[in-house]
Amino acid sequence: MVSLRLVKPLLLLLMGVFLFTRVTSGAIYYYINRFIMLTVLAAAGFVLFAYSYLRQYLDDASAADPHHHHDHHHHHAPQTWLGLLIVTLPFLLGWLVPAQPLGAVAIANREINLGAASGLPSLNAPNADEMMGFFTGEPNILDWLNQFQRSNNPAAFDGQEARVIGFVYRDARFGDDQFLVARFTVSCCVADASPVGLLVRWPDALELPADQWVEVHGRFEAAEFNGMAVPVLVAEQVIRTEQPAQPYLYL
Amino acid sequence: MANKPLLATPARALNSDGRIITRLLIALIFTVVVVGVITRFTTGPLNSRFTTFVTIFLGIFIEAVPFLVAGSAVSGLIEVFVGPNSMARFIPRNPFAAAFVGTLLGFTFPVCECGVVPVTRRLYQKGLPLSVGVAFLLAAPVINPIVLLGTYTAFGWGPVLVGRFAFTILIAFIVGLLFTLARPDEVLLPQTADDLQVAPLSEAAHDHAGHDQAGHDHAHHDHERPSVGVVDRFWRALRIGSEDFMDMARYLIIGSMLAAGMQTVVPQTTLLALGSGPLISVLVMMALAFVLSICSTVDAFLALSFVNTFTTGSILSFLVFGPMVDIKSALMFLSVFRRRVVFYLILLPFALSLLIGVFLNLNVW
What we know:
- The complex is a heterodimer of chains A (251) and B (365).
- Chain A contains 6 helices and 6 strands.
- By secondary structure, chain A is α/β, with parallel strands linked by helices.
- Chain A folds into 2 domains: 4-96, no CATH class; 104-250, CATH 2.40.50.140.
- Mean pLDDT of chain A is 83; it is low at 68-73 and 119-134.
- Chain B is mainly α.
- Chain B has 18 helices and no strands.
- In chain B, 55% of the residues are buried.
- The interface between A and B is large, with 81 and 86 residues.
């Protein structure tokens, strides 16, 4: 029977390699937002863990003490192996299933923030004021939604020009000329992801497959969607693009 | 024998419960791997759903794992550098004072809900009273500087910040105090309790008892002969820590998979549409906290997005109950406590948070 004393350090090492390669491949941005340094530290921790096993193993081997050769006498319960098998699941699934950020499927069972006028003073995004003040580039979907919610008047944005990037989402509520240009916002990891999006009016909306990343150019126009008053982005141009390296917007 | 560890039991001692759990786990692993292979080589609706599941699972796991690594390493360091029964010296004899000290230990061992479990288990082996450990386990994920700062950033100085800390201490104190009445062998798993009395080295896997014995002897030599180098002791601490990690990672992984499964299947829209009444809103937010299993360090930011639609009492219950109990931490409790006790550790904080949330909704806001 294979010695557990070699299997465990091997698993720990694989775990470290798995975490480290998530960071180097950029896939880490599909999973977490802040604390990527912690993932690197954890990977280093796993290497140290694995080495601590190896060190003990080498110590015992060099001691040449017959009492230390106890590995062979032990019967390992199947449950021990089951426990080890469970530990392989993160990297087994991580390597088996191609890494992908959350997309249209994950929107289906979540509440979408469309920037509808809530009638309440918005307590969302307390940093919105600062963020708007520090704009260096173009406002993204989240920035627009924050503005909508603060102004509380969808018509205030009529005629304003916008250019945003997101992926395509549609469901039964959408007309044939409508789609949502959507992103997920994440504050910590994908467990807290929630979808945000701008409603787009585009004659060829039906031709766009779900999850296709697009860049939408257009102007806002107050409209109604599902009984909510929201600014709709009337598209002048919809360009298919590549998925950005950081697919989520960060709160 | 009724309550053996979930996964680390020798075959001969397995009761029927254990066998059912073992079979369920084997079925789960088998299903997940088979669907994973199918996902790899085909496309379709199953494919995208499973990919979503894997992304959320890995998200929760990757977010949590550094904290479990840190907690395990701290556990190993405590084992090597803190003498047996030394905890008793720092804990007041008065049970009320002891439980209260337990709720504040988070400031000395700043760990979140994943790191707290291995540290608590190790502290039990160093003679920490049951009540203090329970109070620490429940309070530490909130009562520490990092979460204090996070909650302040999200909510500012106000009723939510003060309420979160006051009620977390209150609930952890009450539940901890109740455990003053219990005996360690009624509460802790045999492996934790045994170690408490006999050996300081916990090896849940039982995989090389002789080896552990050797490790145990080394421990005594360490204490008798300080000549053993700090470097050697450091590596031994890490080895013990990694054993702890291997022991607890399985609970974290199964817990993350359950949470990810719930997130993929349970529609949050339905949950949130259930209502905003003074009672229902509290229940909904607590259910959400349990299902989402997000870290206590950031849950305040998520709670912010519910401020407009949910009652303040329910937000507070979310922030108090979530860090104490969620799917992944409840599963990790199983590596320390007997199953019946884990049930109480879920039920008592649940009932108390519910009570506080509903009371505040009806009487204060």
